[in-house]
Amino acid sequence: xxxxxILVVDDDPVIRRLLQxxxxxxxxxxxxxxxxxKAEVILLDKHVDVVLTDLMMPGDIGGIEVLEIAxxxxxxxxxxxxxxxxxxxxxxxxxxxxxxxxxEKPINxxxxxxxxxxxxxxxxxxxxxxxxxxxxxxxxxxxxxTIQALEMKSAELQGKLDEVENILRNTRYSxxxxxIQALDTIADLKD
Length: 191
Fold this sequence. Notes:
rod-shaped
């Protein structure tokens, strides 16, 4: 399974650095941003699987806005919001806007890694389903072409059989002539 690429967005440099170090130690690829503006630049420039963002940040771009930006750039990005200010309303709003999960500060790293594993598993399953769908589409297309070719060959053979039948039923010619014509018609099938 491929390791996730994670963007950490937090205005607190201590938390940002802590998250970065723990995620790197767990073999994740990590980008960091001190605010939503820098996060948007990274999201536009780099491939990111998961955004781990603080909910409350100074400025016009908080965690909800980072979520909206990430989903607008790529709807497949999973976003986990982190907050010290637990609020059911905020969690509901975040989930409605597409957040994958919600964590409270102080961060429980075991819980975070479990959630990241869950996201990685879901993404792997989704990619496998897409690969399977692509394989089914290719197979269906090939089967359709084969069926069409068989139908055309069947129609050609039926036409030749009808022609042979008409030759054999035609009493204007001798039996020997009809047999020769019928055999010639059948021989044309091999060409």
